[in-house]
């Protein structure tokens, strides 16, 4: 979690998920957005058949 400044709020990311970043006015908003972004990202990857843990 990174505080970007009074006017910009917070940014959250998950190490290992390159390009997955979410922002919000508060830390809790940023985390909620990150949860949604992660779910959407996994769904997108699954549709492409690229889940790394599948054999």
SSE order and pairing:
Layout: E1 2-5, E2 9-13, E3 21-24, H1 27-47
Antiparallel strand pairs: 1-2, 2-3
Give a short overview.
It contains 1 helix and 3 strands. With 55 residues, it is α+β, with helices and mostly antiparallel strands.
Give an overview of the whole structure.
This protein has one helix spanning 27-47; strands spanning 2-5, 9-13, 21-24. A hairpin with a 3-residue loop joins strand 1 and strand 2 (9-13). It starts with a strand and ends in an 8-residue tail after the last helix. The chain is α+β, with helices and mostly antiparallel strands and 55 residues long. The chain has one domain. The protein contains one helix and three strands.
- Morphology call: elongated
Q: How are the strands ordered across the major sheet?
A: 1-2-3
Average pLDDT: 86
Radius of gyration: 13 Å
Structure annotation, total helices:
1
Oligomer status? single chain
Low-confidence stretches: none
N→C terminal distance: 33 Å
Please estimate the helix content. 25-40%
- Quickly count the domains: 1
Largest sheet: 3 strands, antiparallel
SSE pattern, N- to C-terminal: EEEH
What is the total tally of β strands?
3
Structural category is alpha+beta
How much of the residues is beta strand, in percent? 15-25%
